[in-house]
């Protein structure tokens, strides 16, 4: 049974990611240690474990992973988990409409352990997003199907959980986002409202995040509060990350409350996802802003950036300014005073970058900013 579920996940992963895998983009190998290093397995195997896995993700929102873990000691079971998914829909710059699709499967057991079993989940989550300036709204409503099998004391059978959510995300500084979230999960056991907030930021090689929220159902077991924080540092394509979390009972997986920690070291390989072509292969106006009569016109080729980017700079307090499509390029024009101005571009996933072939300066945080001069 376990092998059938894992085989299903691997076949799904191959179908979803095969075209991108040919380009060898976005692959990562990760070694981790902690008390909970992979959901939903951590809801069933509450032990200190070490894990090794490989995952894939690209700019088209396709992802897959396969991870195996083993306990530090004792007779706790080892486990294997895999998953794959994609975002399918239409992108019109300021708004997107589509669905997030995902499937996960896992199995656990050991020769000297009576605890064994596995499970799988499938998620279909239609989503609508709208971006206006520095604000982004995300609305979603869908269903998560979950099945468990194995030890009777652990298995919860099959169930479906409906989910609706609304998020408001605001960019408050270069690379820093604040968000508020409201969720409502509903199943045969009733409704489960949740409210929370989060902050995440990335500057140069450093990144961090934190969140806090609470289940608002009156008869939900304590603790009802969820919170966590993490930080990472990147050296080229190597990333070291540490995180801690307090996790209450979740209405989807119904795991026991636990305080978890994770330390992970990951290494990317293959080509960098969505890497643009070299500047000399592109028309100069595609990257270098054109300046005339105090107006700077910024352009990026749509062939290199399929989803609409945004312009950020010191002239607009680093708040995203949406770019629009015009004759094969993304473009936006800004009236600027005489002098030098620093700027960069921001992708839909939050990545901030400067294109090749333009003048840059050190931004003081381990990264660079592009420079445009208005005479």
Describe this protein's structure.
- By secondary structure, the protein is mostly beta strands.
- It folds into two domains: 2-269, monomeric porin ompg (Porin), CATH 2.40.160; 279-374, Immunoglobulins (Immunoglobulin-like, Sandwich), CATH 2.60.40.
- Helix content is 5%, strand content 58%.
- It has a 14-stranded antiparallel β-barrel with strand order 1-2-3-4-5-6-7-8-9-10-11-12-13-14.
- The longest helix is centred in the first third of the chain and has 20 residues, at 2-21.
- The chain is globular.
- Residues 1-25 and 272-286 have low confidence and may be disordered.
Question: Which descriptors apply to this entry?
Answer:
375 residues, mainly beta, Porin, Immunoglobulin-like, 2 domains, 1 helix, 58% strand, globular
CATH superfamily of the largest domain: monomeric porin ompg
Tally of separate helices: 1
Low-confidence stretches: 1-25, 272-286
**Total beta-strand segments:** 24
Shape: globular
Measured as a percent range, the helix fraction is under 10%
Return Rg in Å: 23 Å
Helix-strand topology string: HEEEEEEEEEEEEEEEEEEEEEEEE
CATH C-level class of the largest domain is Mainly Beta
Oligomer: single chain
**CATH fold description of the largest domain:** Porin
Strand order of the largest sheet: 1-2-3-4-5-6-7-8-9-10-11-12-13-14
- The CATH architecture classification of the largest domain is Beta Barrel
Q: How far is the first residue's CA from the last residue's CA?
A: 70 Å
What class would the helix/strand composition place it in? mainly beta
Q: Report strand %.
A: over 45%
Mean pLDDT equals 78
Number of domains: 2
* Biggest sheet character: 14 strands, antiparallel, barrel
